[in-house]
């Protein structure tokens, strides 16, 4: 089984620790990880803001970079959702514009092999106990694209429940959007900030030391809002919890 | 109307409005979820609803002709209106012909859409809203802010004040010493409205459905005011969007399950009124149906956007939308607020001003609306599709003619930025160079950003820039064919 890691542009640039955690975790589970340097961004910011044509080269780049692997794993629910949900749409529109089926083939290949990290662990590797140890109180924020596009369901929680030392706290209104939404946070700052403030309040009420999610992009907004309000809750990507062991506690 | 972000920035600061909306939407949201969970075939019903609507829309020309034939055969008169102005003219002329100067109205979205009350007022005709929430809005000289609960932004105390201060100007005054108890408020409205039901000779309604095979119109409602309006007056004028057509009575069965559970979280709505043409000695003696296009055929021409026409106006998408909950309905600048408004308004009106151009962006694309929609309108898909039209322009249909629109002007800077970012992201070497530059200068990064980035740092801290990107870490620790060592060591 050849597994490629799609790190995503946000993680690559701002959260290398998440990527390092994914590598540590997968290798601990006996998976050999390849990291094609030709990879870049999935094209979600462009596509979701309306620049579909600018997402096309990035979609082609993704398909080419990962053409030699059996599975692609990515620590981002929204990037996985972009690939699975929107690559076929981009391909269909390109075909409708009379530009042939090359994009459709690229999309089909990409869609079939792309997995968000928790999906890969539970569905492909068939594990929920990844041997992790994390002695902190943690609450889980299910991100919108993980929840409603990928339908991750309770996979992340099943993984978290098996982590030794962890104490999970319920989050009120967990399924409500945090207000990030990519360029939404910049285009509609007032509503985004109001949503973020409500989410931060709910997180504070859990009394947890950390909030985890399958997406650093939601966490950058949540974490930024928490930090501004002086909250003690810290954002942490689920990969970092799952990679943590008694030998190397985060 | 200002663009959505500006209007929302004002309404979001209104603590009272936020509290009213939060309370109302969360209550109805929980009730709806329970009502839907009672049915084990909900997903199949939902798929059936979507399929019936899609099939009907594909052959709408055929079903509309059948509808017209059957309405006419039953003694009604059908009028066709291409746009709001034509519809208002037809209705105004019909009321004038009766010699009456006032009409009672059943709550109707489409008459809000065309601004009928204002058009009637200009012609010297007074229109009385008889739905409780519409009455509150009308007396308060206000605008509706929700499809199903137009006065959702008002609380009991505000409603009592509106009744006490304004009812006398419109008819029977509010009883002395009116309290804010719901039962007292309802009784005040009942007494006020009863006069109008018994006096009015003309009623104006919309319809939730029109059954083509018999020419029957259907209104579902909760208060009984609709049934009063539909049965007591001598003349009934129904203004209905052409997309409300269903082929047969059998199709209704699906929607009469989907609509009440999605909208009011009821298993069945309290009043279902159906009327077919005219009947001697029973109900209105004259019945007019005004079939309204007003951008619907143009919307139908768009393969992705047309699914918005499936909408049965249940407002489930509003009640689950986190953006609607904070911004309120007025910020959408249309009788159709919330997620459905964000895709319907720019399609019905066209991308004619900064407001319509901003609506497709009034969403975080969280997808809660799609999950809640009883006819499975993929609202996020249409939002992104319309965003593309805003920034890239492209082919659209305007009044039946294919035309090409230009990209919205104010997006020029954004487009340049997106293009540059796109180029960098498609050239990993350049991306890596940029990452290293950012990492090396990280101690000098400002805590607050200037320019468009300010909207980020106004309410959130920036993440800290790491000393080394993942790519560089991988190259340094794992090597690889394209790996090069970064000049500085990771901390």
From TrEMBL, chain A:
It holds the Pfam family CCG. Residues 3-84, 138-222 form the Cysteine-rich domain. It comes from the Bacteria. InterPro entries: Cys_rich_dom. Signal peptide: none annotated. PANTHER family: LACTATE UTILIZATION PROTEIN A (PTHR30296:SF0), UNCHARACTERIZED PROTEIN YKGE (PTHR30296). This is L-lactate dehydrogenase complex protein LldE. It comes from Streptomyces syringium.
Automatic annotation (TrEMBL), chain B:
PROSITE patterns: 4FE4S_FER_1 (PS00198), 4FE4S_FER_2 (PS51379). Keywords: 4Fe-4S, Electron transport, Iron, Iron-sulfur, Metal-binding, Repeat, Transport. Residues 471-491 are annotated as: Disordered. It comes from the Bacteria. Pfam families: Fer4_8, LUD_dom, LutB_C. Residues 302-323 form the 4Fe-4S ferredoxin-type domain. PANTHER family: LACTATE UTILIZATION PROTEIN B. This is L-lactate dehydrogenase complex protein LldF. It comes from Streptomyces syringium.
């Amino acid at each position: 089984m050849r597994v490629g890691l799609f790190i995503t542009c946000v993680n690559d640039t701002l959260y290398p620790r998440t990527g390092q955690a994914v590598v540590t975790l997968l290798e601990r589970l006996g998976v050999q990880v390849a990291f094609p340097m030709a990879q870049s961004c999935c094209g979600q910011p462009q596509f979701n803001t309306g620049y579909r044509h600018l997402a096309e080269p990035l979609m082609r780049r993704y398909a080419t970079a990962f053409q030699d692997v059996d599975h692609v794993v990515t620590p981002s629910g929204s990037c996985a959702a972009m690939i699975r949900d929107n690559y076929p749409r981009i391909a269909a529109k390109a075909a409708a514009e009379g530009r042939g089926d090359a994009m459709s083939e690229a999309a089909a290949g990409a869609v079939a092999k792309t997995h968000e990290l928790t999906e890969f662990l539970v569905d492909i590797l068939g594990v929920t106990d990844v041997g992790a140890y994390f002695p902190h109180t943690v609450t889980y924020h299910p991100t919108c694209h993980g929840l409603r596009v990928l339908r991750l369901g309770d996979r992340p929680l099943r993984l978290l429940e098996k982590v030794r030392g962890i104490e999970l706290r319920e989050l009120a209104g967990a399924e409500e959007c945090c207000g990030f939404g990519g360029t939404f946070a910049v285009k509609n700052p007032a509503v985004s900030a109001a949503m973020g403030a409500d989410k931060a309040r709910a997180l504070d009420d859990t009394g947890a030391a950390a909030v985890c999610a399958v997406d650093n992009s939601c966490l950058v907004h949540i974490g930024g809002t928490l930090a501004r309000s002086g909250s003690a809750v810290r954002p942490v990507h689920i990969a970092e919890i799952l990679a943590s062991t008694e030998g190397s506690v985060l | 109307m200002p663009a959505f972000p500006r209007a929302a920035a004002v309404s979001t600061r209104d603590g009272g409005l936020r509290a009213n909306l939060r309370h109302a939407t969360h209550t109805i949201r929980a009730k709806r979820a329970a009502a839907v969970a009672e049915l084990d075939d909900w997903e199949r019903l939902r798929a059936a609803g979507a399929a019936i609507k899609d099939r009907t829309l594909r052959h709408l020309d055929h079903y509309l002709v059948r509808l017209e034939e059957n309405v006419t055969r039953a003694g009604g008169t059908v009028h066709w209106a291409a746009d709001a102005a034509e519809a208002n003219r037809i209705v105004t002329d019909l009321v004038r012909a009766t010699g009456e100067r006032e009409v009672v109205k059943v709550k109707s979205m489409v008459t809000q859409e065309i601004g009928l009350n204002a058009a009637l007022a200009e012609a010297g005709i007074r229109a009385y809203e008889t739905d409780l929430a519409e009455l509150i809005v009308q007396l308060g000289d206000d605008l509706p802010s929700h499809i199903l609960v137009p006065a959702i932004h008002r609380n009991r105390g505000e409603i009592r004040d509106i009744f006490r201060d304004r009812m006398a100007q419109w008819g029977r005054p509010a009883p002395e010493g009116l309290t804010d108890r719901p039962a007292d408020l309802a009784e005040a409205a009942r007494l006020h409205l009863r006069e109008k039901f018994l006096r009015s000779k003309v009623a104006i309604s919309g319809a939730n459905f029109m059954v083509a095979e018999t020419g029957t119109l259907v209104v579902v409602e909760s208060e009984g005011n609709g049934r009063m309006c539909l049965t007591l007056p001598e003349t009934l004028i129904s203004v209905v969007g052409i997309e409300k057509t269903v082929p047969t009575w059998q199709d209704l069965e699906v929607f009469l399950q989907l609509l009440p559970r999605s909208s009011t979280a009821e298993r069945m709505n309290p009043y279902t009124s159906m009327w077919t043409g005219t009947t001697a000695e029973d109900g209105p003696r004259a019945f007019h149906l005004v079939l309204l296009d007003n951008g619907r055929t143009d919307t139908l021409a768009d393969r992705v956007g047309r699914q918005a026409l499936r909408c049965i106006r249940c407002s489930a998408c509003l009640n689950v939308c986190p953006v609607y909950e904070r911004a309120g309905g007025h910020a959408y600048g249309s009788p159709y607020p919330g997620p459905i408004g964000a895709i319907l308004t720019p399609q019905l009106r066209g991308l004619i001003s900064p407001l319509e151009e901003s609506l497709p962006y009034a969403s975080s694309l969280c997808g809660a609306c799609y999950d809640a929609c009883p006819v499975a309108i993929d609202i996020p898909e249409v939002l992104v599709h319309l965003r593309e039209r805003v920034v890239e322009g492209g082919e659209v249909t305007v009044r039946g003619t294919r035309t090409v629109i230009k990209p919205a002007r104010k997006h020029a800077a954004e487009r340049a930025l997106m293009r540059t970012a796109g180029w960098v992201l498609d050239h990993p070497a350049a991306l890596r160079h940029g990452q290293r530059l950012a990492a090396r200068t990280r101690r000098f990064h400002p805590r607050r950003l200037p320019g468009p980035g300010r909207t980020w740092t106004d309410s959130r801290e920036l993440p800290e820039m790491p000393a080394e990107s993942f790519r560089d870490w991988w190259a340094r620790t794992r090597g690889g064919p394209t790996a090069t060592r970064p000049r500085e060591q990771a901390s």
